[in-house]
Amino acid sequence: MNKIINPQREKTKSRIAWTVAITLAVIWVVVTVGPFIFMVVNSFRDKKMMGRQGVLHFPDPWYFQNYPDVISNGFFGYFFRSLFIVSISLILMLIISSFAAYPLARMKFKLRGFLYAGIVAMMSVPMHVTLIPVYQMTNQMGLINNLFSLLGPYVAFALPMSVFILTGFMMTIPSEMEEAARIDGCNKYNMFFRIILPLSKAGLSTLAIYNAVGMWNEFAFANTFLNDIRVKTLPLALGAFKGEHSQDTPLILTVLTLSALPTVVMFIIFQDKLVKGMMAGAVKG
Amino acid sequence: MAKLQGMAKRDARSTAIAATIFLFPAVALLIVYMVYPIIDTFLISRLKWNGFYTAEKINVGWDNWKTLIQDELFWNSFLHNVILMVCSILIQIPLGMALATFLDASGRKSNIFKILWFLPYLMSSVAVGFLFYYLLATNGGLISGIATLVNGKRTMVDLLGKNPHALYAVIGVVAWQYTPFYMVYFIAGYSNIDTSLYEAAVIDGANRRQYIFKVAIPLLGPIFKTACTMSLIGSLKYFDLIWNMTQGGPNHGTELMATYMYKTSFQKFNMGYGSAIAGGMFILITVIALLFQKVFVVKEDY
């Protein structure tokens, strides 16, 4: 016998379900946004007021001096050094990985399978396994406390996944395009620059976003190679400020707010594109 | 005929040359910065060495490895990695899935939820570490502040200062940061499901809830596997957040393999033993990842 569905009861049930779901959703909003509010609101507080007013009280009066203090203590130095090394690494990485992906996707040669498998296997290598030897190499090259020490590791560690994704992307380009170009007298090198590379733009832009975020946030290599405060990158700024002003919570929260700002601004401008780019790492490892 | 063969041969040769030229920079970089360092880590692990290249390197054979196998601190760190791994899979993935399901079921009007829920993932691990270091602080922290308000008198909640709850506080923070990642991941999973399946389910008399639980979630199976693999590898090599939040403390209560390795190598300058830890970490991660893959592949065959 079929159960008789009472539409009225179904409707109430669904309404209750939605009320519960929305309540939980709002609770999760509080959990995700709460820490941000704590961060931003307390960056407008005088450190002497922190203990007296407690964190739940709005700053009284609102104190704006933390921001000029952080900026005059070299915040933009950290920012532009990060921007500089990330830009160079990113451009180099995109060139090298698209170079490597082209033969893996579009040519038949002996070591193809072996090289592809080898590169894919390197996607999950933890950086700590390479850290000591890479540190020694950097040291021998005299690059400790030099921003360029990060170039090699940043490019190399971004390569496996980028090559993997670009190879997959280039494989989807229809071979008719290549045939037509070949008949017109295009050789393998021109083929790459005239046909394959322009058609891979979408894949490249996704990878650019993913790796830019990764390199922008990179900590362990930078922390190992850069000890001098004059060459440190943005992720190290927090530690440097904390080292000097460990008791000044509002000041550190100001540094945090400022360093989170670029990604948040990017998110507001590009939203779905940025999210898509940041998710490029979600590949079978 | 001979001419044709000659052409084919020449073509294969020119392909090989082109492939070599295009692949050379990537392969060279990967050898210099990955393959060689991995080998070198295992070589250094047989030395007693403080890392300064003018200093004496003493070959101690397998001593570092023998120490490592008996090193309680290392196995404790590994245990913390495993706890982090299990909790990450059990918290982040179901939670991300639930959030994605809510967003999928409620459609475009819940876009504001999607934006707000994504925010934590915009911060770097370093920033999250610092933020929660101050947020969970006994003095001027948010949790202590709320506890004071609820209690009506000055109350301190010391989540990061004592074991074992320091580890669970850290796990909570990690979940806070990474849940949005899995949320977006499952949103993509839902949107990849063919709409005709939904239409077919509706024609068959299914409501939205039945569609989600009986059709959509079972279809997300393969995506689950990938999400678990990512979470697994990620948890085993975790470093940035812990290093900036607790430095593995208090009393090694939140120590992970990576933080232990970093401390040994770059604070105590015991590079030989540090390399052994790194090598052990590499072996453990590889074995666990392969085992995990294998177990899942067997399941898929049925």
Overview of the structural elements:
The complex is a heterodimer of chains A (285) and B (302). Chain A is mainly alpha-helical and 285 residues long. Chain A has one domain (74-281): Orthogonal Bundle (MetI-like fold). Chain A has helices at residues 7-42, 47-53, 66-106, 112-121, 128-140, 151-171, 175-183, 188-199, 201-216, 220-225, 234-244, 249-270, 272-278. Chain A is flat, with a radius of gyration of 25 Å. The two termini of chain A are 50 Å apart. The mean pLDDT of chain A is 89. Chain B has a single domain, classed as MetI-like (MetI-like fold, Orthogonal Bundle). Chain B is 75% helix and 1% strand. Chain B is built from 13 helices and 2 strands, in the order αββαααααααααααα. The two termini of chain B are 51 Å apart. The chains are: A mainly alpha (285), B mainly alpha (302). At the A-B interface, α1, α3, α4, α5 and α6 of A face α1, α3, α4, α5 and α6 of B.
Jot down its keywords.
heterodimer, A: 285 residues, mainly alpha, MetI-like fold, 74% helix, 0% strand, flat, B: 302 residues, two-stranded antiparallel ribbon, 13 helices
Number of domains of chain B: 1
CATH class of chain B: Mainly Alpha
Q: For the record, what CATH class of chain A applies?
A: Mainly Alpha
Oligomeric composition of the shown chains:
heterodimer
The gross shape of chain B turns out to be: flat
Q: Fraction of residues of chain B in helices?
A: over 70%
